[in-house]
Structure prediction request, 163 residues.
Amino acid sequence: MMHRLLPAPLLSASLCALWLLLNHSIALGHILLGALLGLLIPLLTRGLRPLPVRVRRPGAALKLAARVMHDTTVSNWNVVRFLLFPHRRRHAANFVYIPLQLRDPNGLAVLAMIVCITPGTAWAEISRDRSMLMLHVLEVDDPEKIAQYVKTHYERPLMEIFE
Prediction:
């Protein structure tokens, strides 16, 4: 019952303290209003907070981090090559559609961060039912090969970690 009334106690206390600091006052009226804000804001915004994260396989998370660092380094070099020698561009940019099995919101958020920090790729759109990712890629030779790479090297480990 207490969790429903006070879903984020640290946030509530911080909001109350912030209210008092902003008003430069510890008058009873300010304390009561700060306490009210500290209680109401977390209650009204609890639906906006992300789901609790539960990492099921920490080892898989470390392997994924190593893979992302490697891929980001390789992508950086490819983008540098593209910028310094544009006439050597191998393939045109294009959108790649990737069917997704990953449904965990935290896993999808991590997938979005991975493809957004990797130079040469950008998360373009995800279908409403979260079953299809549209990814923009700087150079696309074989869209299916790119889709399989994302599924094998990112989606599968994320499913092991979060689902």
